[in-house]
Amino acid sequence: NKILDAEGQVTVLLQLKLQQRHTREDLIRQGIMPPLKSPAAFHEQRRSLERAKTEDYLKRKIRNRPARSELVRMHILEETCAEASLQVKQIMLKRARLADDLNDKLSQRPGPMELIQKNIIPVPSSIRQVLIGTVIQHIHTH
């Protein structure tokens, strides 16, 4: 009974896999299977040519890749003389410092009212008078 159940599950699974498999045209389009009208040797030769082109391309890219010093100059790599185990901590410390600096700068930047008073943010004069009057009233009440 258990064997029949297992066989039934395998049959259902196989049917599902057969329904989901790629069509012959998909396999031909992807270069996995040779076209019906062309000889298999031609298909194999074409695949090896594609593989050789890819290999040449990758070798050329590796040969022309920039030196480490160039990557450091372009800020792609960090210039560090720390051990690999300390580099992670060094990067985390640098990020924490940058976050602190950013928070300091954000806390010191002027607010919208100050920008309006200094004519940095353009506002129609009628609205400007109302805003400045509101700020003055707020200052006198506090």
Question: What can be said about this structure in brief?
Answer:
Helix content is 73%, strand content 0%. The protein has 142 residues and is mostly helical.
Structural commentary:
The chain is mainly alpha-helical and about 140 residues long. Helix content is about 75%, strand content about 0%. The mean pLDDT is about 85. Keywords: Actin-binding, Nucleus, Repeat. This is Phosphatase and actin regulator. Binds PPP1CA and actin.
Give me the number of helical elements. 7
Sheet-strand content, in percent, reads under 5%
Distance between the termini: 86 Å
Number of strands: 0
Overall pLDDT metric: 85
Q: Note the main sheet.
A: none
Which series of helices and strands comes N to C? HHHHHHH
Topology:
Elements: H1 2-20, H2 24-29, H3 40-63, H4 68-73, H5 84-108, H6 112-117, H7 125-141
GO molecular function: actin binding; protein phosphatase inhibitor activity; transcription coactivator activity
Subunit structure: Binds PPP1CA and actin.
Subcellular location: Nucleus
What key phrases describe this protein's structure?
142 residues; mainly alpha; 7 helices; 0% strand; nucleus; Myocardin-like
